[in-house]
């Protein structure tokens, strides 16, 4: 085996480093300019971090050389003096210990560089013997390079010139929602105490201007301003204040959701108030009941009721269709903040909380229909499948659980499951592959849908709760591992064939589920990604960023 390394092999290691660090644009450009994508290298045997290990080994070797030279010089001086002192002996011993530690560090690095070099050398020998220096080998990806632990092929890196960036918010954008009936209308909610309505042009993103948004203020007189320049806000109203007290009050917008007919937008805020706006940005209702921040809200399928959950431990049902929008019922099941809610039908819903519990309740009933227990930490997210048969939950205990409120062969009127020892009888799947908190769970849009979970371990996992085999019940169908930070958000495309994910690593990834989880699009923004969403036609994707912007780009399969 030759002890040399070629420039093509160095280029490949640099290319791998850029990909592993998430610099997808730089990797794409470098790969084409250096022609590493046509080199025919098979990197399937090279582990992540190879370039850094080579560099660290070089630094260690240079340090060892310097120490050996220094030690030899000191030894010569000692021989000339024919004497040594105790302190010199101590220094020599310390130097030897340092040399030993340096050698040990070089020998026991996480990556075995000799193995990496063997892979590179074997590629070189294969290329020379076949005489096909730039061709693609059998089993290679579409880019000609098989990357260990990465999806097949090189995904298309969306350029900034292909992205429409929406400016206006002055703090993090936490939530976004496309109008279900009008594919061009997008709502966003921010930590600046406003929501905004954007009309996104139908043309290619990045090439057409966007009109100024409608601003829905969650403070002051709460009258929306269609033109902020024509109606400037008073200087003192820049910082929202609590009503009547004068103390500062956080009014972060925590959720935005459109009614099924697309005519009304509901928003929730840290001020404990939910609001209903018209699609023209006019405030129609203020739903004031909760004594703590409202964390989530959902419309039922008919748009007649609105559901809110709060830090005050309660869940409220509102008559959203009434002129007064009064509270129909307030549920007090939880013993800690109620974190998420989702409707099963027009009058039945599920809620989850920091008390580790999941409740299924029906409007008009004082007690919950079902109590789902088994999580060992806060339950961050709940969602019903499209048929309303299965409920998924994701928790800080690193698990995803799937519940079936009606057991096979029983009626829907059986009593609530008792809370006690043993497993909850309504638990049908318990997925434990995630290694950190599960922040979001989402079902695909079709019957017999797959389930996606987003975790702080940097992965998205796809599950099939309907699988009958024992193995499939506990193992993910796909593990989508490309993000380098916590994954906050996932969303299925309207057709269910694609999934988009967003992470604190500033990256948005689009995956093809019909191709086994192949990464097909990537975009790196200027801030962490809190939420992603598809428009109703599946032609555009929006991402809410921590730098106060919303990015929109086109998607064509």
Structure description:
The structure is a single chain. The two termini are 45 Å apart. This protein has 2 domains: 7-154, no CATH class; 160-554, Methylamine Dehydrogenase, Chain H (7 Propeller), CATH 2.130.10.10. The model is unreliable at 81-85, 87-96, 99-111, 130-151, 221-248 and 409-422 (pLDDT under 50). Strands 1-30-29-28-27 form a 5-stranded mixed beta sheet. The chain is an alpha+beta fold. The chain is globular, with a radius of gyration of 29 Å. The chain has 6 helices and 33 strands.
What order do the helices and strands come in, and which of them pair?
Elements: H1 7-20, H2 24-33, H3 50-81, H4 86-107, H5 113-130, E1 156-157, E2 163-166, E3 173-178, E4 185-190, E5 194-199, E6 214-217, E7 253-258, E8 264-269, E9 273-278, E10 283-288, E11 294-299, E12 305-310, E13 315-319, E14 327-331, E15 338-343, E16 348-353, E17 358-362, E18 370-372, E19 379-384, E20 391-395, E21 400-403, E22 427-431, E23 438-443, E24 451-455, E25 459-463, H6 470-474, E26 478-481, E27 487-492, E28 498-503, E29 507-512, E30 518-524, E31 529-534, E32 540-545, E33 550-554
Parallel strand pairs: 1-30
Antiparallel strand pairs: 2-33, 3-4, 4-5, 5-6, 7-8, 8-9, 9-10, 11-12, 12-13, 13-14, 15-16, 16-17, 17-18, 19-20, 20-21, 21-22, 23-24, 24-25, 25-26, 27-28, 28-29, 29-30, 31-32, 32-33
GO molecular function: transcription corepressor activity
Keywords: Nucleus, Repeat, Transcription, Transcription regulation, WD repeat
Pfam family, one: LisH
């Amino acid at each position: 085996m030759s002890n040399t390394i070629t420039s093509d092999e160095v280029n490949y290691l640099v290319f791998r480093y850029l990909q592993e660090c998430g610099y997808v644009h730089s990797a794409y450009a470098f790969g084409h300019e250096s022609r590493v994508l046509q080199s025919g290298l098979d990197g399937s045997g090279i582990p992540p971090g190879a370039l850094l290990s080579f560099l660290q080994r070089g630094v260690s070797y240079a340090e060892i050389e310097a120490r050996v030279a220094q030690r030899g010089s000191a030894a010569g001086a000692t021989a000339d003096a024919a004497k040594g002192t105790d302190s010199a002996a101590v220094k020599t011993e310390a130097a030897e210990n340092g040399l030993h530690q340096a050698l040990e560090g070089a020998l026991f690095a996480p990556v075995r560089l000799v193995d990496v070099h063997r892979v590179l050398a074997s590629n070189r020998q294969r290329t020379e013997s076949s005489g096909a220096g730039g061709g693609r080998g059998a089993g290679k990806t579409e880019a000609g390079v098989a990357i260990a632990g990465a999806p097949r092929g090189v995904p298309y890196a969306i350029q900034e010139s292909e992205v429409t960036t929406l400016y206006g918010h002055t703090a993090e954008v936490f939530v976004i929602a496309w109008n279900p009936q009008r594919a061009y209308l997008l709502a966003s909610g921010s930590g600046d105490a406003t929501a905004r309505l954007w009309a996104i042009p139908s043309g290619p993103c990045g090439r057409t201007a966007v009109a100024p948004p409608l601003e829905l203020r969650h403070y002051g007189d709460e009258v929306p301003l269609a033109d902020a320049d024509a109606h400037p806000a008073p200087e003192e109203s820049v910082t929202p204040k609590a009503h009547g007290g004068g103390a500062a009050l956080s009014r972060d917008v925590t959720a935005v959701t459109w009614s099924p007919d697309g005519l009304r937008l509901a928003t929730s805020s840290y001020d404990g108030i939910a609001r209903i706006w018209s699609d023209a940005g006019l405030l129609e209702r203020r739903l004031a009941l909760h004594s703590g921040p409202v964390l989530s809200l959902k419309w039922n399928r008919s748009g007649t009721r609105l559901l809110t959950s709060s830090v005050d431990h309660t869940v409220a049902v509102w008559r959203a269709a009434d002129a007064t929008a009064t509270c129909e019922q307030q549920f007090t099941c939880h013993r800690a903040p109620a974190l998420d809610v989702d409707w099963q039908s027009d009058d039945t819903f599920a809620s989850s909380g920091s008390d580790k519990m999941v409740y299924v309740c029906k409007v008009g009933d004082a007690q919950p229909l079902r109590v789902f227990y088994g999580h060992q930490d806060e339950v961050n997210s709940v969602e019903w499948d499209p048929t309303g048969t299965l409920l998924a939950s994701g928790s800080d205990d690193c698990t995803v659980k799937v519940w079936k409120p009606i057991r096979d062969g029983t009626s829907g009127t059986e009593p609530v499951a008792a809370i006690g020892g043993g497993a909850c009888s309504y638990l049908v799947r318990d997925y434990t592959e995630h290694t950190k908190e599960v922040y979001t769970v989402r079902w695909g849009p079709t019957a017999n849908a797959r389930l996606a979970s987003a975790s702080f371990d940097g992965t998205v996992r796809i599950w099939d709760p309907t699988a009958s085999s024992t193995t499939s019940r506990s193992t993910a169908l796909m593990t989508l591992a490309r993000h380098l930070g916590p994954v906050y958000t996932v969303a299925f495309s309207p057709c269910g064939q694609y999934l988009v994910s967003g992470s604190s690593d500033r990256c948005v990834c689009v995956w093809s589920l019909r191709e086994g989880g192949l990464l097909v699009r990537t975009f790196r923004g200027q801030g962490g990604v809190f939420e992603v969403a598809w428009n109703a036609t599946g032609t555009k994707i929006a991402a809410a960023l921590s730098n106060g912007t919303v990015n929109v780009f086109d998607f064509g399969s």
